[in-house]
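Researcher: We plan to redesign the surface later, but first we want a full-length starting point. Tokens attached.
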């Protein structure tokens, strides 16, 4: 399990309660949701998607760095990445030989 750092910014202008979430030490991992609970759920899903994409493309995962911070964030907290190897296994049928 890897522990990254999530940051959330609450949109005070928006009456719908949008929250923007990003993983500070995993570039490109961001989302938004209505309320903190939805933003947390969507950010966790985005983190898994980004990690799976990196692995599928043969790229290493960014190393967690707890020193990353966002001065504009309203909340920073750990976010945990746990990948299931079974989701990366696929069976390829062998071609019949004549």
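Model: Full-length starting sequence:
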């Amino acid at each position: 399990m890897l522990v990254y750092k999530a940051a959330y910014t609450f949109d005070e202008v928006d009456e719908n309660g949008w929250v923007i979430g990003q993983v500070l030490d995993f570039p490109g991992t961001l989302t938004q949701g209505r309320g903190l609970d939805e933003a947390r759920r969507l950010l966790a899903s985005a983190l898994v998607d980004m990690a799976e994409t990196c692995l599928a493309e043969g790229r290493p995962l960014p190393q967690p760095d707890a020193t990353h911070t966002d001065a504009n964030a309203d909340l920073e907290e750990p976010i945990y990445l746990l990948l299931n190897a079974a989701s990366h296994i696929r069976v390829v049928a062998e071609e019949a030989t004549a």
